[in-house]
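Two proteins, back to back. First:
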Amino acid sequence: MKRILITGAASGLGLSMAKKYASEGWAVCIADIQDEEGQKVASDLKKQHGIDCFFQHLDITNEDQWQALVNTITERWKGLDALVNNAGVASGGAIDSLSLKDFQWTMDINLMGAVKGCYFCVPLLKESKGALINVASMAGLTHMAKMSAYNASKAGVVALSETLSIELDPFGVNVSVVCPASFPSNLLKTIRSSSDTGKNTAKKMMDRSPVSADDIASMVYEGSRKGKHIIIPTFRETLLWRIKRYLPAFYFMFMKKFIHKIINK
């Protein structure tokens, strides 16, 4: 029996990944701050698939809660085969308008939450030669204006993942980093933005997404299983990332023209 821990698994992409792995016969730990929803997800998956699925409350910024969860997993499962650092938040606003408190909030959850997950769970993954999956964003690879906090946090997750891909290779641990563009999710419920424009733009981008959370979950499952490092679910975003890598001058010219067009509307 394979064993996976997924943070933020009570809703959104985390829920879709929990369903996918459970359908493939994995035992799943649902870790989230949403207690009622998380307990229901765990109960439903256990009944539907007959696998060991349980919920535990986890605030990913809380080190004591991480240690308690690892203790529970060690006692219950005697190990761990995969960790998905999925829980995260969104924020938006110009650098001089988004409050420093909200900037710090974004970094604490998106980046340091993933760091803490790695810190506490990597010893178990080394033992099992397992898989580490960090959910970043296209914002970690290509950086839109007026998203500095979110971009920086997700770029940090990409850098963390690249580092650990090398660092953990001698131990047989595969590291994947998932970089989806905007897709329908629950991020708008908690987004912190200095204006309604940012929220409205994010909603429009989500509504236009060619992929769903379930689509991305399937890509994550297959990509990680095949040892893929960077997982970008959509062709358009893959193309943009490659343009940035191989034609950086063109990329920055395009991005600057785009922001000028928005400001001058």
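And the second protein:
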Amino acid sequence: ERIKTIMPKPSIGLVMGSAIAPEQLISGASTAESVGFDEIWLAEDYFFTGGISGATMVLDATSKIKVATGIVSAVVRHPAVLAMEISTLSRAHPGRFTAGIGLGVPAWLRQMGLHPPSSLAAMRECVEAVRALLDGQELTFEGSTFSFDKVQLTYPEVLPTPLHMGVSGPKMLQLSGRIADGTVLSVAASHDYVRWAKQQIGIGAEAAGRTEKHHITVFALYSVDKDPQVARDAVRGPLGFYKSHGTNALTDVYGNSAQIEDLLAKYGADSFAEHLPSQWIEDLTIAGTPEECANKIKDFCEAGADTVALFPLPTEKIDDLIALTAREVLPILDT
């Protein structure tokens, strides 16, 4: 009989921001902290709710829970400004803040005229510059994306802020392993993708001679209900929205890239979600009864996630979802 390895309990995060209105952040964050969530992640999808301002609100409204941006774009703010914002939050709330930095959705960046010539170079320059500035260094250099002329923070951080990269492809994941403290993996990640991403991160870490723990956070579209079909229906539309943007490393590893292209060609983006195979919902989201959701969270932990951050759907029922999760999902994870 196969002996199942006992895995450590993952940290459970709550993803806020984006479709959650700013006025809902304070009450939602306070409730999440009081019922036992470990982390709150503030998404900054353009043009919804601000990540830095949202993190500020949540940190002020809570006292102990970890708070992170997940993610802010490397190119929307100059790294000097981003470092200044991070240090401000870090000094005001020592040991509670994590900065998640990614490139951002290309279509949104192009709307602002900010898509860089090299995504890899932009991420490397941003993360390395932010770390150096947080450490109190003065920067002067001309990069391919950013320039610095005697830039130095007046108030560098006192306690080091973990810098996590929100990335998906192999080169970006390897870069994260080389220069970041953790990686944020996108919603709609399969268990195989998490394992593959961890391998890519390991390649980068080994190349840089890094041996310290690299924290992996997985975002997951999430809905819980006594009626599992209600929960699955709640994530279908958002899953379709993310997958209708096309194929990438997540779909290549899962093996549905060709099927996505076929469905888009046949039905178009507007009707795409209606025709998603039910198995995709089972494999790429956390949706179902409380017991089913708890088991799916455990599965992500076994695949390599240190944190599973839940993106609650539908967003207008966030308070009910938080309450049901606290009452019937989190206790299962503690057993």
